[in-house]
Design goal:
By secondary structure, this protein is α/β, with parallel strands linked by helices. 38% of the residues lie in helices and 20% in strands.
């Protein structure tokens, strides 16, 4: 009797499983055909898809190429490959991801490569722009599927109310960052940007660090993970990589995926630091996609959608309703030819909460980090610093600017001491000021030590 009952129960479970599979299966097998390749855009006929829906292209040698719908027009679906691919031919069959394909007498399920779910098990992992593992570790993890968080109501955001200790003395003292702030690091090539990012990642006071390497050279990825971050920092870090040779869609998705990971940890009550290198390469990848779809360029080759996407990406981060959770973001912005009027740089300055400029002349003089404190600003510093610190910071920045503007005059011996009291003070305290602003990559100065050093420097300069 018991055996019969167990057999019936087993059959019921099996029948229920089969019923669920049948209900989730597609009602028909759909496929389209590749009719044209226009630059990066794959034009498919006979397969309508929604924006961002995935599809798989069957090549002549039996391989599959994963692609994503980016637009559609008069019965033609425009796809873009997730990975750089050149071996696809005309007439290739295209199937929606997750549907069966006729292989001649049988059907094969067209499955896309699974992304890692977003969760605590992502810590210490290195993934690509679609959440696919790059580190060779197991892909089966626990968490939730990757999906973008919605827009936050601006009135429901918690105000920035406490400083973030980043471990860099010049930033802690003169450009104090608040938890939930979005900061741009503006720099040309070769001025120590990657080293400064490594210092921020290692030394910032955060529960989780998310690093997005967007458009980086492949050689630098392993160096950044192993040498700059190190094994201890990597344990609390999620690294999202989309190298320079990745498809533009992969580079764009890398920035969004890193943002999704950071906001998920924030929504779990964590203090998160998001470091994205770089916002400019995200804009360049978006430009490639937009131009491929026929958008007209409006500013130095950038279509309008680029300047729409930048605020959308940046506004995802920051504070939510929880006062004990935040995403503080550092975005690097590349200055072509050290031109700060670049359209991407202009847009970034308008949507970020502050900017840190790295000066080439300081880097060439061996002054690291090469922060030009006169051109840099933290817009939330008045909210997280007291009046005494603000006065000291203004005094130090004024002396720094006076010294830098008179550098050539002093070097030529054309300045007579005593003719300018403030310049005399700047020249007198320059050794201490230069020492305060410089810091070796392995050194760390917490917020308390930074403020004490700022007070000593301000006192030696004669107060406010």
């Amino acid at each position: 009797m018991m055996q019969a009952f167990n057999a019936i129960e087993k059959a019921r479970v099996t029948l229920g499983s089969c019923q669920r599979r049948l209900q989730s299966a597609p009602t028909s097998v759909r496929c389209g055909r590749l009719v044209r390749i226009n630059g990066l855009i794959l034009e498919v006929e006979g397969l309508p898809l929604a924006i961002d829906q995935r599809a798989l292209i069957r090549t002549g040698d039996g391989r599959t190429i994963e692609a994503c719908c980016v637009s559609f027009d008069h019965g033609i679906t425009h796809l873009m490959a997730l990975d750089a691919e050149t071996s696809v031919g005309p007439g290739a069959l295209v199937y929606p991801a997750g549907t069966p394909a006729d292989t001649g007498g049988s059907f094969e399920l067209m499955e896309r490569q699974r992304a890692l779910p977003i969760g605590s098990s992502l810590l210490g992992r290195v993934v690509d722009g679609f959440g696919r593992p790059l580190d060779g570790l197991p892909a089966e993890l626990t968490g939730v599927p990757a999906q973008g968080t919605g827009r936050l109501n601006p009135l429901r955001r918690s105000p920035i109310h406490e400083p973030l200790d980043v471990g860099v003395r010049a930033i802690n003292g003169l450009l104090t960052i608040g938890r939930g702030q979005r900061v741009g690091i503006f720099a040309g090539t070769g001025v120590g940007k990657s080293v400064l990012l490594g210092m921020l990642a290692r030394q910032c006071d955060a529960d989780v660090v998310v690093v997005g390497l967007i458009g980086e050279r492949g050689r630098e990825v392993r160096e950044f993970c192993e040498d700059i971050l190190g094994p201890e920092t990597l344990k609390r870090t999620v690294v999202v990589v989309a190298t320079a040779d990745s498809a533009p869609l992969a580079r764009v998705r890398g920035a969004w995926f890193a943002t999704d990971v950071a906001t998920w940890f924030r929504d779990q009550g964590k203090h998160v630091v998001l470091i994205m290198d770089s916002l400019t390469r995200f804009a360049m990848a978006q430009r490639e996609i937009a131009l491929g779809l026929g958008e007209p360029p409006v500013s130095r080759g950038y279509p309008p959608s680029v300047f729409q996407r930048l605020p959308e990406l940046v506004e995802r981060v920051g504070n939510n309703e929880d006062k004990d959770a935040s995403v503080t973001a550092f975005y690097t912005v590349l200055l072509e030819g050290d031109d700060s009027s670049d359209p991407v740089a202009d847009t970034a300055r308008g949507v970020l909460d502050g900017h840190i400029f790295l000066a080439r002349e300081l880097a060439e003089a061996g002054h690291y980090p090469a922060i030009d404190i006169e051109r840099s600003i933290s817009r939330v510093m008045p909210r997280v610093a007291d009046a005494t610190q603000m006065a000291q910071a203004r005094r130090v920045k004024r002396l720094f600017g006076r010294r830098m503007r008179s550098q050539d005059l002093v070097a030529m011996g054309a300045y007579s001491p005593g003719s300018d009291v403030e310049l005399d003070t700047a020249l007198r305290v320059w050794p201490q000021l230069s020492f305060f602003l410089q810091q070796a990559p392995g050194e760390a100065f917490d917020l308390t030590a930074s403020l004490q050093a700022l007070t000593l420097l301000s006192d030696s300069a004669g107060g406010t």
